[in-house]
Structure formats: structure tokens, C-alpha cells
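Recall that a protein's primary structure is simply its ordered list of amino acids. Everything else, from secondary elements to tertiary packing, is in principle encoded there. The following example makes that idea concrete.
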Amino acid sequence: MFTVEGNKEYSEQIKKSQFIGNLASVTSPDEVKEFINSINTRYKDATHNCWAYVIGIDGQTCHCSDAGEPSGTAGKPILGALQKHQLSNVVCVVTRYFGGTKLGIRGLIEAYRHITEETIRLAKLKEMIIKDYYEIITDYNQADKLKHTLVEMGALLISNDYQAEVTFNISALPESGVREFLENSQNAGILKYRYLKTEY
């Protein structure tokens, strides 16, 4: 999956209607709502502000709106373009100022898809590298050896806390084998670990 860096805007006139695409990086439904509201405010005199968003590591959360256009002619083409490019954690709003010439169902679908595609083309994309995060607790005798082994496996050490025991937090790629190593080490009584989250 990929996401975008920052925001990107693209504008084009199609059969006398002015279309404006706005694409942004988001991480939550609240950020999606905030961005859509900001576009609605900026283009409050527009005929339509249609939108779609995709959120999640696998793009599992998505939604779209035709915002008054005929059903299926705006939101779905916008969403389809986002999914075609394997984008997630993104929202796209396509604004339309009606110019007096009707585009028809097919024309609307093609216009909204085209504007979204062009906005994506201008945006800077980055791959979403998925990482698992863990908290590890061990004793002083094992700490340095464990950290060395985990770093050799490609894990990133995020923090250390030396108290009665040593607690450190790491991140690692899911395919690195770190989780299996932690599970085996915990079963051997070398450490205790807790899976925290998976993020990119």
C-alpha cells in the first residue's frame, strides 16, 4: 500500500464545468471529516463537493459520497481511483462548479475519475512500510545480548528504561522473525514481551 505526502490540488475545466481535486494524507475518520469540512468551507459556493477516503494498513476502511450528483457517478469513481493506485490513509475531495452543460452519467463518472487520477499523478507517494511494536521486559544480565540480537534481526530500538528490570520498546517488520524469537525467548524464561500495535 501507498499513501501521499502532504496535500495536492489539481484543477481542470471539462465541458464548461470547473473541477478541482484535493488530495490529502489522513490517519483517522476525524481527520477525514476535518479535511472535507475545510474543502466545503473553501468552496462553499460550489455545485458539488464529492469525496472518498481509504484508511487502514490494508485499506480496509473506505467510504464515499456523491454529494448530490446522480448515484454512483462521483464518489465511487473517486474511490476506485484511490484503490487502483493502492492508496490508503488518504482522502480526496473533487469540487465541481457546474458550467451549464450536462455531462451525462458516463461523462460524470469519467470526469470524476480523471480529476482524481490527475491529482494522484501530481502527488508524492510513499510506500506504507508496516511495522509491529513490542514492549520487552528482561533482567540486566540478558538485556545487552537481547538488544544486540534484535538489532541484528533488523529491529529498531525505540526506548530503554533501567529500573528493577530492563524495559525497552522496539519496532520490527512483521516478516523479520522477531515475534517468533520473542515468543520462544519468553517460553524459555529469558524475557516477557507484550505486543503493542501494528502501524506504518
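The longest helix spans residues 104-122. The CA atoms of residues 64 and 76 lie 6 Å apart.
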